[in-house]
Write a structure and sequence with these properties.
The protein is an all-alpha fold. The protein has two domains: about 150 residues, Orthogonal Bundle (Tetracycline Repressor, domain 2); about 130 residues. It contains 15 helices and no strands. Helix 12 runs antiparallel to helix 14. The longest helix has 28 residues. The radius of gyration is 19 Å and the shape is globular. The model has no long low-confidence stretch (mean pLDDT about 95).
């Protein structure tokens, strides 16, 4: 079972599960009626396999840096549990399988968007953007924000404004989410010469950016209600969750204790999870 667990960890399962939740929101909100279970499961399997492949490729490319960082040195490749060759075969296999499922059992648009988004993360972000600019997570965050669009396209075979609005929420959420972690792990990134914002511009500047992005996120999170994509349940949830996120961000900004960085990071995960759950619940209540 150890080998299975190692390959499971190679796929960054927590990240993939969050992406699948975001894709599920797109699937649910794209339909005016209840979506057949098979039309939910099949695209999620395809998207999940492609996401796992992208995560594995990320770890293959970053294996040397991962081995030197406290946050990542326990991953399967740095630990020698999986060889680069076997990891590459695994990533290629599940990636091709996921793409085939999307092409033949869902639709070509979903397959193309998935390949572009996750290929952008696995290659463009990991190889170039991550080490090219302190705005790496902002630019590269577009790939990670794609899952709601992928889910929506799997139902409608189109790219629609409401789907892009869901993408916008994740896109704006990503920088304050990741920068909070980057503050806590700034020494690791500095050691590897990775130009994360706290390394290049300092912690104080990064904290300010977190607050500013959280304010923008607060406003953007209200858009689904404003455009009548959601109802009161979502509105109340968004107001409460966004207010709490802003509280965490301001507290981090005002404090010199880096422990608040990790508290902000962990709350940001709960935030995106709960706000999308609220969208799903709201949709089923008013369907």
């Amino acid at each position: 079972m150890t080998i299975v667990r190692n390959y499971y960890e190679l796929c960054k399962p927590n990240v993939v599960l969050m992406m699948l939740l975001c894709a599920l929101v797109g699937i649910v909100l794209a339909s005016e009626t209840l979506v057949p279970l098979i039309d939910i499961i099949v695209p999620l399997i395809g998207i999940g396999l492609c996401s796992g492949s992208a995560a594995a490729i990320n770890q293959i490319i970053d294996r040397e840096a991962d081995a030197e960082m406290d946050r990542t040195d326990k991953r399967p490749i740095p630990q020698g549990e999986i060889s680069v060759r076997n990891a590459s075969i695994f990533a290629l296999t599940i990636g091709l399988l996921g793409a085939a499922i999307l092409i033949f059992l869902v639709n070509s648009l979903t397959a193309i968007l998935t390949i572009l988004a996750l290929g952008g993360y696995a290659f463009i972000y990991t190889i170039y953007l991550k080490r090219a600019t302190p705005q790496n997570i902002v630019i590269g965050g577009l790939a990670g924000a794609a899952p709601p669009l992928l889910g929506w396209a799997s139902v409608t075979n189109t790219i629609e404004p409401n789907a892009l609005l869901l993408v916008l929420i994740i896109f704006i959420w990503t920088p304050p989410h990741f920068w909070a972690l980057a503050i806590y792990r700034k020494d690791d990134y500095a050691k590897q010469s990775i130009p994360m914002l706290p390394v290049t511009h300092g912690v104080a500047f990064t904290k300010l950016q977190i607050v500013l992005y959280t304010i923008i996120l607060f406003l953007v999170s209200l858009f689904p209600y404003i455009v009548l994509m959601s109802g009161t349940i979502y509105l109340v949830s968004a107001l409460i969750l966004s207010s709490l996120f802003l509280f965490y961000s301001v507290r981090l900004y005002l404090s010199d204790d880096d422990k608040y960085a990790m508290q902000t990071f962990w709350f940001s995960i709960y935030y995106i999870f709960l706000i999308f759950i609220a969208l799903i619940v709201d949709h089923f209540i008013y369907i």
